[in-house]
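Why do we care about 3D structure at all? Because function follows from shape, and shape follows, mostly, from sequence. That is the central idea of this module. The next example makes it concrete: a single protein chain, its amino acid sequence, and then its structure expressed as tokens.
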Amino acid sequence: MRMNTISSFAEYLQNIPEESKPKLIELMAIIKEAVPHAEEGGISYGIPTYKYLGGLVAVGATKKHGAFYVMSNSVLNHFENQLIGMDYTTGTIRFKFVGVLPKNLIQEIVKIRVEDNEYIASQRKTKKK
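And the structure:
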């Protein structure tokens, strides 16, 4: 199956390399623990995307690494000091399949993304009035 035809988180997990699955599942659990009300918003741009008042964060995996897509470069910049020594780039943190995921950092980032989306939603409501 081609990745661009995948439509659910479960399908995505079935179609990634076996060595990728445990850490990606762990990352998904960390996100859901931080924001239980976030929806598994389907596949967007070929990767599983969580939604809460719009796009929240996304995850992905290759044979070489997993990825946590923050969907906000400014939020990631806020955590620059905590990212020292990690593999990251504009809006994305990449991680190897060995070692421990930075659970607290991931949850802090997700919670700030929730606050961002709530603020944006409140601004939209204000403009409509």
